[in-house]
Amino acid sequence: MTELTVLKERVLRDGKCLPGGILKVDSFINHQLDPSLMMAIGNHLAQLFKDSGVNKILTIEASGIAPAITMGIATGLPVVFVKKAKPSTMGNALVSKVMSFTKGVEYTVSVSREFIGPDDRVVIIDDFLANGNAARGMIDIADQAGATVVGLGFVIEKVFQEGGKWLREQGYRVESLVRVESLDNCEIKLL
Ligand code: 5GP
Fold first, then answer.
1. At the N or C end, where does the chain have fewer CB atoms within 10 A?
2. Quick one: how far is CA 179 from the chain centroid?
C-alpha cells in the first residue's frame, strides 16, 4: 500500500466530523501523533517539491510543525514556524493577522526577520487548508521578508472551502495529500 493510501484510509477510519465543516483527526495529526505516518507525509511532501528550488520550509504552530519537520528531515532543509503570539524576546519581527478557522478569533502571527529573508525560497506547509487564512498570513510574512513562495503543501485540503481555489487562482502551486470533497451528513467523502 502506498503512503498516500495509508493516509487516506486513516482519515476515513479515524477522522470524525464536527459541526461547521470541521474534520477532527486528533488521534493521529492534531493531538496524538502517529510518527511513522508523519514520516511518510514528510517524505511525500519532499518528493512533490524536490524540483521547486525550495531552500526553507515555513509553517505555523502548532499542528503544521510535525509535517514540516518530517519534510525537513527528508530534505535536509531548515524549518521555521510562525508563532501565534509574539514573544517578548523577539525583537525585529515580521507580523501579520490570521483569522482562526477552528477558534473563530483573529490573532497576530510573527516571525523573526533573522530567519526569513530575500534569499529564501519557501514551501509553506500546514495540516489543513480550509479558507486559506493561515496560508495567506504566511504568504504575507514571506512577501514582507522579500522571500519567494515556491509552493504550499497541506496534509488535508477541504475542497468545499475556498482556500485552495483562491491560492490556485493567485498562481500558487498547491499540493494536498488528501482532498476532502464533503463532510455533509457527517460522512467523510474524499476526492
Ligand atoms: P484556514 O486558515 O485555511 O481557513 O484553516 C487552516 C487552519 O485551521 C489550519 O492551520 C488548521 O489548524 C485549522 N483547520 C481548518 N480546518 C480544520 C479542520 O477541519 N480540522 C482541524 N483539525 N483543523 C482545521
1. N
2. 13
Q: Is 75 in the pocket of ligand 1 (CB under 6 A)?
A: no
Cα dist from 131 to 88, 100, 181, whole Å = 30, 10, 14
What is the rounded average pLDDT for all residues in the chain?
Answer: 95
Name the DSSP letter for residue 31.
S
Report the sign of the C-alpha dihedral through residues 183, 187, 188, 191, in that order.
negative
Q: What is the pLDDT of residues 111-132, one digit of tens each?
A: 999 999 999 999 999 999 999 9
Atom of ligand 1 lying closest to residue 163 CA: 3
Q: CB burial class (10 A; 0-12, 13-18, 19+) of residue 3?
A: middle
Ligand 1 closest atom vs CA 98 = 2
- Distances in Å between the Cα of 186 and the Cα atoms of 8, 102, 139, 159, 183 are 17, 17, 32, 16, 5
Work out the widest C-alpha separation in the chain, in whole angstroms: 48
**Is the pLDDT reported for residue 1 higher than 70?**
no
The CB-side HSE value for 94 (13 A sphere, CA atoms) comes to: 21
Strand 121-129 to 56-60 pairing: parallel
pLDDT at 8: 97
